[in-house]
Write a structure and sequence with these properties.
The complex is a heterodimer of chains A (about 550) and B (about 230). With about 550 residues, chain A is of the alpha/beta class. Chain A is built from 23 helices and 15 strands. Chain A has a 6-stranded mixed sheet, with helices on both faces. In chain A, strands 2-1-3-4-5 form a 5-stranded mixed sheet, covered by helices on one side. A 4-stranded parallel sheet of chain A has the order 9-8-7-10, with helices on both faces. Chain A starts with 8 loop residues before the first helix and ends in a 13-residue tail after the last helix. With about 230 residues, chain B is α+β, with helices and mostly antiparallel strands. Chain B folds into 2 domains: about 80 residues, Ubiquitin-like (UB roll); about 90 residues, Alpha-Beta Plaits, CATH 3.30.70. Chain B contains 7 helices and 9 strands. The chains are: A alpha/beta (about 550), B alpha+beta (about 230). The interface between A and B is large, with 45 and 49 residues.
């Protein structure tokens, strides 16, 4: 067995032990910081300390992409291989780096000084192509010029209004600059039910993708009786093409924290979590600093406090019940709903879980009142909205606009298609979204208008492809993403994402076999109709939309007709 | 208390708190299941028992959803049949179903093809023969989770097995792939009892299937106490 010295591990585990099983991910992260990977004696020591069965610890390590149970370096370069970066030759960068260090993708040098691996979307799409070098973002990589930026990723914020992003674009906003939590103070002077009524009246719906009415969610948790309730900020922003929450959190953490404090007051929660994806390591210290500022100012630490939890490389943990499982120290398997989080959330207790952008709307609504908030946007989609514009446009970045702006207007703000090329299509809503084409340019971007033309708003992704792009390659990339990220619990998604990937690989290499069109459709509809959670139910959404728009792509090269 | 619902146009009345699957089975109607087992907590993961419930956006697992008054359920609609057939075809393209006669029967019933997915990657692995009581042949495993459940809170509280990998790469595994005698396994055999596909099999049965005679097997198993002759 490897000669592993457990001495440095024990004091690190000490403060985590009281968390019990819930401390499993924090313990594995802490151990990996010391050793680079989790060896058998380290896993055994963690299991013993936290009183978790050995097999369960193994199962958790195996589930999360960023936990390693084979020798891995403490220094890891993760090259983003997903859609926006793939457009900018991510594969070339990965191969170049690997060749330079004499490694294959996913390999570690023999002396354990470096590991290089491809990564799913790193949420830095506006700076593509990108990589993550340990805890630093490596952006705008240019192989020809041999240049890149390393460190905190810049925030590029544009649009026609600056309500949610008023403090974004210029480094982190300290509490001193953010000012007092005036919305929280106002809320504290109201009855909790009146705060909820105000959120309901504002018409705010979730901005993470599912668009569930926020006030209704809060009401459910407020009415549930329990000795303990929780507020969770879902910062597991992993939908390929999404990066707005990254900008909100790193530039203006207090807006999210104030939003959580108001939520906690409204539903009677005493404990909160910010669950942030491990691919945003540079945000974690920013959050810790902001939380300490809020504690020192007396906003946190008395009736309500917040703990930061870091994911470990699993898109599925953005699904709310999988996120609960992850906080509880388990594999991120989504739970069957009902029961819903408002009554049976994390640790089985009533929980409100909201996306970062949703929470950032809360102080705004309370401060100015729901009537004023409803002046922004449209009747059925009130408020400001952030769009993540990436791909082939002149100015990529986060765009804040009122609901109701058309896709054409948004693309004009972004300077139009880059390099004087024409627009081919837009991936709307994320990997779990759908494709729009030039005929959708004048559709108003509201929940109701988009629904009318079969486009999901999702998490606000607007990824642009110019006329020269081969959509087959984009689809192949989506296929690989979902196959990598399926949790494996329910059969339709576990096997369907794999079969979908195989067929899309054939499509990309113009090597389809007879019946692939119907085969791909059957797999897609089976995942959509019968999967257990939202990941599986949308894993074929973009593919099915592409099949409607460009059926010829899926039969080309096939000898007999479908 | 009872509830009354309509399933496939038939009015059914059953006790409050029962599932749609209970309602169907108590009334002689067939809803197929794979992962469901009376002794384990229903996880609704195989999705074979999905049905259409009026007013619900996606198909619902009958093994979990409770029957309610005025519910309207279709157990064999177009979406349901397409999903079940495709799930069965994907299973056949993924694993060895030769020891799973119930699933083979379902495939016939739904007209599911064994060759639907050409060039599909299969989950294949070597037979693990590392203990005197049972073998593990994960080429035949369809990940119903029952073995993990009975090894844990559903029965034995032994926690010897869990999962390797995720997604399509998922497999049942032990801590750092240890042999069974090096784990907390107490050889209770409950996992073997609930396995629906012969992935877990008594060692003696496996040896007989390998063509060994009972005499050869008893010589091999000299470490075990011999039972008294009946």
């Amino acid at each position: 067995m490897e000669n592993i010295n457990l001495t440095p591990l024990k004091p690190i585990l000490e403060p985590i032990i009281p968390l019990g099983r819930s401390g499993l991910l924090p313990a594995l992260h802490a151990a990996q910081k010391i050793y680079g990977w989790i060896s058998e004696p380290v896993a055994s020591e963690i299991a013993r300390s936290l009183r978790v069965p050995l097999a369960d610890v193994h199962g958790v390590i195996e589930f999360y992409s960023l936990f390693y149970n084979k020798p891995t370096s403490k220094h890891v370069i993760r090259v983003c291989a997903d859609v926006a970066c793939a457009l900018k030759d991510a594969e070339g960068i990965l191969n170049h780096l690997c060749a330079h260090h004499g490694l294959e993708p996913g390999q570690t040098t023999e002396d354990l000084t470096l590991t290089i691996e491809p990564s799913p979307c790193l949420g830095l799409c506006e700076h593509a192509p990108v990589a993550l070098m340990d805890d630093l973002a490596e952006t705008n990589i240019n192989l020809q010029k041999d240049s890149y930026q390393l460190g905190r990723p810049p925030s590029w914020v544009y649009g026609s209004i600056r309500l949610l992003t008023t403090n974004c674009g210029n480094d982190t906003t300290s509490l001193e600059k953010y000012g007092e939590y005036t919305a929280l103070k106002k809320a504290n002077g109201m009855k909790p039910e009146d705060v909820i009524a105000e959120i309901k009246a504002s018409g705010l719906v979730g901005r993470g993708g599912a668009a569930f009415p926020t006030g209704v969610k809060w009401d459910g948790a407020a009415k549930a009786t329990a000795d303990q309730k929780y507020v969770i900020c879902n910062a597991d922003e992993s939908e390929p093409g999404t990066f707005k929450d990254r900008v909100l959190l790193i530039d203006d953490p207090h807006r999210t924290i104030e939003g959580m404090c108001i939520t906690a007051y409204a539903i009677g929660a005493s404990k909160g979590y910010i669950y942030i994806r491990a691919e945003y390591p540079y945000i974690v210290p920013v959050l810790e600093t902001a939380l300490n500022e809020a504690r020192d100012a007396g906003y946190l630490g008395k009736d309500f406090d917040i703990e930061v939890r870091v994911g470990a490389g699993a898109y599925i943990c953005g699904e709310e019940t999988a996120l609960f499982e992850s906080i509880e120290g388990k594999r991120g398997f989504p739970r069957v709903k009902p029961p819903f989080p408002t009554t049976h959330g994390v640790f089985g207790k009533p929980t409100v879980i909201n996306n970062v952008e949703t929470l950032c709307n809360v102080p705004l609504i309370i401060a100015q009142g729901s009537a004023e908030f409803r002046q922004i946007g449209t009747e059925k989609s009130p408020g400001p909205k952030l769009f993540c514009v990436s791909g082939d446009v002149v100015k990529t970045g986060v765009y804040e606009v009122p609901f109701g702006v058309t896709l054409r207007e948004l693309l004009e703000m972004a300077g139009g298609v880059a390099n004087g090329k024409k627009l081919q299509s837009v991936l709307f809503g994320g990997a779990a979204g759908a494709f729009a084409t030039t005929e959708h340019l004048d559709v108003k971007m509201t929940f109701e208008d988009l629904r009318g033309v079969g486009l999901p708003l999702g998490s606000g992704v607007v990824m642009v492809f110019d006329e020269t792009r081969d959509m087959r390659q984009v689809l192949k990339s989506l296929g690989h993403f979902f196959a990598h990220e399926s949790c494996g619990k329910c059969y339709p998604c576990q096997m369907g994402t794999q079969r979908q990937k195989e067929i899309l690989d054939r499509v990309a290499s113009r090597d389809v076999v007879e019946g692939d069109f119907v085969r791909l459709q059957d797999v897609g509809w089976t995942m959509t109709d019968a999967s257990l959670c939202g990941l599986g139910q949308t894993a074929a959404s973009a593919v099915l939309s592409a099949m409607k728009l460009w059926p010829e792509l899926f039969v080309e090269g096939q000898t007999s007709k479908v | 208390m009872t509830v009354t619902l309509v399933m496939d146009g038939k009015e059914l009345t059953i006790d409050d708190g029962k599932t749609l699957l209970d309602a169907a089975r108590e009334n002689g109607m067939d809803i197929p299941t794979i992962c469901f087992h009376e002794a384990t907590t229903a996880n609704g993961l195989c999705r074979m028992c999905v049905v259409e419930v009026e007013g619900m956006r996606v198909l619902q697992p009958a093994c979990i959803v409770q029957a309610a008054n005025n519910m309207k359920v279709q157990t064999r609609g177009e979406k349901v049949v397409r999903s079940r057939k495709t799930i069965l075809e994907m299973l056949a393209s993924t694993m060895d179903l030769s020891d799973a006669p119930e699933i083979l029967t379902m495939m016939d019933e739904y007209g599911a093809s064994h060759e639907r997915f050409p060039g599909a990657e299969r989950r294949e692995s070597e037979v693990k023969d590392d203990n005197p009581m049972y073998i593990r042949d994960y080429s035949k495993c369809l990940l119903c989770w029952r073995c993990v459940q009975v090894c844990a809170e559903d029965a034995q509280y032994t926690f010897a097995i869990n999962f390797d990998g995720r997604g399509f790469e998922t497999q049942i595994g032990t801590f750092f792939d240890k042999a069974i005698p090096e784990t907390s396994c107490v050889l209770c055999g409950q996992c073997v009892g609930v396995c629906p596909t012969g992935a877990l099999k008594p060692k003696r049965q496996f040896q007989l299937e390998q063509g060994m005679s009972p005499q050869e097997i008893s010589v091999l198993n000299t470490g075990r106490k011999r039972r008294k002759e009946k």
